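Tutorial, part two.
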Amino acid sequence: MLELTMAAVSGQDAGATAGMTMAEAPSRPGAVLRVGRDGNECGLVTPEDWLFVSRVHLEFLCGPDGTWQVTWLRGSQPDPASEVRLAVGSHAQPLGYGATVALPYGGSGELIVQDRTEPRSVNVGFYHEV
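Running the prediction step on this input gives:
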C-alpha cells in the first residue's frame, strides 16, 4: 500500500498542516496515483490557479515486483515553472524534469514541488506500507 498526503503551502501558511488531503493505492503492479491540477486525472489535486504545477505533475506507479516509483512528468512547456525535491530521512535530492526515481521499499519521505517565482509549494508525503 502506498499512502500519500498533500498540503498546498503558500508563504503566509508555512508550517501549517490545515487542508491536507490523502490518497492511497494497493501495491499491485500497474497501480497509479497522480498529483496535479486536473481533478479528472489526479487523486491529489492542487489549486487550479497554481500554474507552476502541471495538470498532471507527479505520477506514482507500482512496478511488477510491488515497489513504487515516482516520475516528474514533462508538461507542455520546455522549461518547468517549478523545482521538485525528494527528501528521505536526512537526505534530499533534486528530481529532474521528466526523471523517474524508485521510492524506498517500506519507507517514507516527501516530495516538494516548489514554485520558482513565489514562496509557495506543494508538499507530498509518502509512506510505503509493506
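The mean pLDDT is 92. In part three we will examine how such features are distributed along the chain.
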